[in-house]
Design a protein that fits this description.
The complex is a heterodimer of chains A (146) and B (109).
Chain A: E1 5-13, H1 17-23, H2 27-33, E2 41-47, E3 54-61, E4 64-76, E5 80-87, E6 96-105, E7 108-117, H3 122-145
Antiparallel strand pairs in A: 1-7, 2-3, 3-4, 4-5, 5-6, 6-7
Chain B: H1 2-12, H2 15-24, E1 29-30, H3 31-35, H4 42-54, E2 58-63, E3 66-71, H5 74-108
Antiparallel strand pairs in B: 1-3, 2-3
Classes of the chains: A alpha+beta (146), B alpha+beta (109).
């Protein structure tokens, strides 16, 4: 019996649940925030926003093109969005699961993001993440040297 | 580092082993003491301890006829750091999303 590694992040937004939800499935919006890195360029955003549909977001970086694959499991506007997620160099079948829960709060909404990772594939994500960390660190250095 | 994290998370993925680590956080325990709350044989408990040892989470020493296990917390910090990096990743994504949504709202008003 093994449990996935679970990461939870919660956040308040000054936006309606609908606007918040739609941003995840709208190619123009998703391309700007989802897997964009500061010195990369998002060169492809394809989103097939149906249950079972897939999405591909490609971020062009100095180190090469980083592919991010998604597959939608639950699309319940504006409350819940669940998708499988994998990024280079994870292979087909090595998915992690991201769930979004959106509830109205005051004049805005609260988003809770849960990222479940099978420990078996933690290593692959770690490599990907290292790439991101390096990019962010180099950016921080560039700013510090200014 | 990558393979090591793999082993750490695999070790942590099991509820029995997490309970053993929780018990060890209170001090050294023999394998028999670790097995007791889980209605488990010595051999069964020993297998779990071996998985924890491989991940560097537990150190074993002989004390007379007993084997005592001790918690090694360093790999836990590595795993935590890895999770923190993901947390940072999503927090940054959500920051950008927040800014985008605010800009959209202002445009609409």
């Amino acid at each position: 019996m093994t449990d996935p590694v679970i990461l939870k992040v919660s956040r308040d937004f000054d936006a309606s649940p609908e606007a918040l939800f739609d941003a995840w499935l709208d190619p123009a919006m998703a391309g700007k925030f989802l897997f964009a890195t500061p010195d990369g360029e998002v060169v492809k955003v394809e989103i097939d926003a149906r249950v079972g549909g897939r999405a591909l977001i490609v971020d062009r970086r100095a180190s090469g093109d980083a592919h991010h694959y998604l597959q939608y499991e639950v699309i319940d506007r504006p409350h819940r969005l669940v998708f499988l997620f994998r990024a280079d160099p994870a292979e087909e079948g090595q998915w992690t699961r991201v769930s979004l829960e959106i509830v109205p709060s005051g004049t805005g909404s609260t988003l809770t993001l849960t990222h479940e990772m099978d420990p078996q594939w933690a290593a692959y994500e770690d490599q990907t993440r290292k790439g991101w960390t390096m990019i962010l660190e180099s950016l921080a250095r560039a700013i510090a040297n200014d | 580092m990558v393979e090591r994290l793999d082993t750490i998370f695999a070790a942590l993925a099991d509820p029995t082993r997490r309970a053993m680590l929780a018990s060890l956080s209170g001090g050294e325990r023999s394998i028999g003491e670790l097995a007791a709350p889980h209605a488990m044989s010595f051999a069964g408990a020993s297998k779990h301890v071996k998985a924890l040892e491989r991940a560097g989470l537990v150190e074993r020493r002989k004390a007379g006829r007993q084997q005592l296990c001790r918690l090694q917390a360093e790999p836990l910090r590595e795993a935590e750091l890895w999770l923190k990096q993901w947390e940072k990743f999503w927090t940054e994504r959500l920051d950008v999303l927040d800014a985008l949504l605010k800009a959209e709202k202002e445009r609409a008003e």
